[in-house]
Amino acid sequence: MDNATQPQSTHHFNRSWLIGVLLLSLPPLFWAGNFIVGRSVRFEIPPLQLSFYRWVLASLLFLPFSIKVLRREWPLYLKHKYLIILASVTGISAFNTLIYWGLQSTKANNALILNAFIPLLISLLGVFVAGLKLRAKQWLGLVVSFVGVLIIIARGDPAFISSMSINQGDAIVFVAMICWAIYTLSLKSMPKEINRLGLMSIQMLVGLAFLAPFFANELVHGAPAHWTMHAILSLVYVGIVPSVIAYLLYTQCIERLGPTKAGMSINLIPVFGVVLSTLFLGETVHAYQAIGMVCIFIGIALN
């Protein structure tokens, strides 16, 4: 009996482990691409327009699959309207808009180091606001992973961080990180009976409603978008991969693994940034980057 059930148990473990790895790694991979694309089109598409068009495209892709769910679960959305509004404003309206806005004036290194604060912010807000309990091993994992990010961004030189200057763009990006921490915790608080496909769709629609007046103001008073082929392809990418696929996977990651471990996965963004730079920019991997990556993976494993 034991021998008969052992292969099945091993298969279940391997499958669960693989799913966990994919849920932890794919969203930060796709979002690393979002940072690269968002930075590359900063002179072609203004930040609010990029964010608004991104979610319009994502919503159009979602609606055919979610319209029936939206109609069926409308009473649930009204019942939990404040929680849905909180998630929509922080995760859809604010986070990416603030990132695109901040990247107009801050250095990429500064944005990355601020990005590393997300797991700490999630844990701190979870402990002091949501009553989340963390074990000593989880706190250790947060610290080790955070150190790994610092090693990568500082290029192995601690003096590099102390020489960094803080500007308005940095402050904007840091507010975006706070928004993402709130978004993560709000998703964890969502009732289980709400269908996740419908939830993502309603968040996009509510988020677009909040973005609309700011988008209109930028359209009238801001710089116009220049629709080059590069700009169009960039919009297609951010409207599909980080907006639809990554958000759905991240929601599942929170459901299966909890907000702390899901938040820790954000630290993989600079890791994938190194990989993408190697593949597309011809840069080489240095020893400090390898050490930083190891620290990040150890930190995630401890959680």
Summarize the structure.
It is found in: Cell membrane. By secondary structure, the protein is an all-alpha fold.
What would you note in describing this structure?
It is a multi-pass membrane protein. This is DMT family transporter. Its main location: membrane. The chain contains 14 helices and no strands. With 303 residues, it is mostly helical. The protein has one domain. It is globular, with a radius of gyration of 20 Å. The mean pLDDT is 82.
Descriptive labels:
14 helices, transmembrane, membrane, 303 residues, EmrE-like, mainly alpha, DMT family transporter
List the domain count as a whole number: 1
What is the overall number of helices?
14
Could you give the distance between the termini? 34 Å
Major sheet details: none
Could you give the topology of this structure?
Blueprint: H1 2-40, H2 47-72, H3 74-79, H4 81-102, H5 108-115, H6 118-128, H7 136-153, H8 158-162, H9 168-188, H10 196-221, H11 229-257, H12 259-264, H13 268-281, H14 287-302
